[in-house]
Amino acid sequence: MNLLIYKTKSELLEDLADYVIAIAEKAIAEKDCFNFVLTGGNSPKDLYEMLSTTYREKLDWSKVFFFIGDERNVPPGHESYNGLMAKKSILAPLNVAADHIFFVDTTLAPEKAAIEYAKAITTHFKGADLAFDLILLGMGDDGHTASLFPGTDILDSKEVTVESVFVEKLATYRISFTAPLINKAKNVAFLVFGEAKADALKHVIEDDPKTPELYPSQLIDPIDGSLTWFLDSDAAKLLDN
Ligand SMILES: O=C1O[C@H](COP(=O)(O)O)[C@@H](O)[C@H](O)[C@H]1O
After folding, report:
1. Is-contact 144 150, C-beta < 8 A?
2. To the nearest whole percent, how much of the chain has pLDDT over 90?
3. Candidates 73, 81, 139, 162: which one to mutate for ligand 1, based on the most atoms within 8 Å of Cβ?
4. N or C: which end of the chain has fewer CB within 10 A?
5. CA 108, 112, 115 angle in degrees (round to 5)?
6. CA nearest 224: which of 172, 179, 187?
7. What is the pTM of this model?
8. Residue pair 2/19 in contact by the 8 Å Cβ criterion
9. Segment (H or E) for 85
10. H or E segment and range at residue 36
11. pLDDT in tens, 141-166
């Protein structure tokens, strides 16, 4: 595991953007495409805007397939739909073709939406191992990541898939990659800013023994891939040196 701590958000974003491009270039050189899983929430918006502007000329974006690691159970045009933020900040500016975008169809019931999304991913990988080149993740101030929330059933899933999950504290369904699917990835990167995340981050990184039912981000531990945490100094302020 690599822990990278930055004084400023802009330094962090620049390094993270370089990291994304380096992984993308390697994937494209090896197999002519890059399977890139975006995270939702607020944290990644500036990164996506940076990739689609300053970094626009640094990659052949037509070789990139975009996915979303979790989705809220709201209509696709809703302001909380993770895919909408991605669409506005990176996909539309880069003119990404519709057949390179894999998002959750939330017009379906949550369970069906998860099944259809999992099917679309499996079809895209043509029966090969579901090992994404890069999965970006955020972390909530309760330690959740993707839609793996504390105390939810999906935390026990052993399936390499996408599942729907009822999140009691939000009184809503979510659709999410399971931890085993995330852990198949070749590279996983967390993007965590701000003081509000400091307490959960300390538990996630330093607790021994781990308690993933309380801090689900502890479940993320790629089997053969790399795990990198991009943190600002506010989020990292409680970590032991
Ligand atoms: O609800 C969600 O929250 C997490 C964390 O979001 P952030 O804005 O605090 O970074 C996010 O990673 C996830 O995709 C989203 O659905």
Report:
1. yes
2. 99
3. 139
4. C
5. 130
6. 187
7. 0.98
8. no
9. helix 82-86
10. strand 34-38
11. 999 999 999 999 999 999 999 999 99
Residue type, 141: D
| Phi, psi angles (nearest 5°) of residue 75 | -60, 150
Q: In whole angstroms, what is the distance from residue 220 CA to residue 188 CA?
A: 8
Structure tokens at 139: 């972390």
Q: Which residues line ligand 1 (CB under 6 A)?
A: 39-43, 70, 82, 137-140, 145-147
Hey, which of 70, 106, 152, 232 would you mutate to test ligand 1's pocket, going by the most ligand atoms within 8 Å of its Cβ?
70
Q: Which long-range contacts (CB under 8 A, 24 or more apart) does 153-157 make?
A: 154/178, 155/179, 155/212, 155/213, 155/216, 155/219
Ligand 1 centroid, distance to 95 Cα (angstroms)? 25
Token pair recorded at residue 62: 């037509």
Tokens 């009184």 found at: 171
**Which pLDDT does position 234 carry in this prediction?**
97
Measure the CA–CA gap between 196 and 182, rounded to whole angstroms: 24
Burial 36-46 (b: 16+ CB within 10 A, else e): bbbbbbebbeb
Look up residue 3 and give its DSSP letter.
Answer: E
Residue nearest to atom 3 of ligand 1 (CA): 41
**Best mutation site among 144, 175, 188 for ligand 1 pocket (most ligand atoms within 8 Å of CB):** 144
**Ligand 1 atom nearest residue 139's Cα:** 5
What six digits make up the tokens of 125?
């990988």
In DSSP terms, 188 is beta-bridged to: 135, 227
